[in-house]
Amino acid sequence: MSTELKLTPKQKSPNGEPCCEPVVYPDVERAEAERMAVIAKALGDPIRLTLIDVLRKHAGKVCVCELVPLFDVSQSTLSHHLKKLRQAGIVDSERQGLWAYYYVNPEALDELATWLG
Amino acid sequence: MSTELKLTPKQKSPNGEPCCEPVVYPDVERAEAERMAVIAKALGDPIRLTLIDVLRKHAGKVCVCELVPLFDVSQSTLSHHLKKLRQAGIVDSERQGLWAYYYVNPEALDELATWLG
DNA sequence: CAGTTCAATCGATAGTTGTCAATAGATACG
DNA sequence: CGTATCTATTGACAACTATCGATTGAACTG
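ok -> structure tokens follow
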């Protein structure tokens, strides 16, 4: 889909030599990058990344009341981080009575990992 | 306030039923997550992620003067984004005369991709 | 019913980030 | 020398983020 190139005739130095090959970037890739950025942004915090790791290693649904004491932040702050992860599609949650259980949705992480590698 | 117990042991509901298995998290993993967060944070912006993609696809060192016209931001803003990527170890740069050439350092991305699974 | 517990939300606030215009350095050319 | 070009930095500002304490609401218990 490299149909569209938005280019910029290559520039030249005062002595007329080009600085490099022309660079193109298709719109499709731009949209993809935008989507990956949403996921990466949600991962761009130590607490959230640690949360992911805990949930992943636990290989099951983990109750919020078990997650809170693992971190040096308040319950409301942790709830905020979990919300961010949910909004990015990285985790999902279920309620059972008083408790809320969180678990990783591997799709989002796989998408980013694939994009990276 | 701080008379509380450090409860890693599982909590119990009023009726005595545990909410889930106990959760632990080693310090080593915490440090690792911290490092991954730095990389993810640098990737958490559409422009920066697109920059990575452009550099990667170009498979060579790309001059800043070719990068700037690909985006709808000022030259100083783009310079700022490139700096962020450099600080996270995701890209590197070289100067040749007037021009600055950027290229991807694949190590950081590989690290994150591996961490993600 | 009243009291407890858990998690989400609200309101406030300090700190960070993305952005631009302007400027400063560095380098090349004449 | 002086001028032009390219990139990095600075300063300012609006927008966003992480954090807390307090509160709310739901759900269970006795």
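The longest strand of chain B covers residues 91-96.
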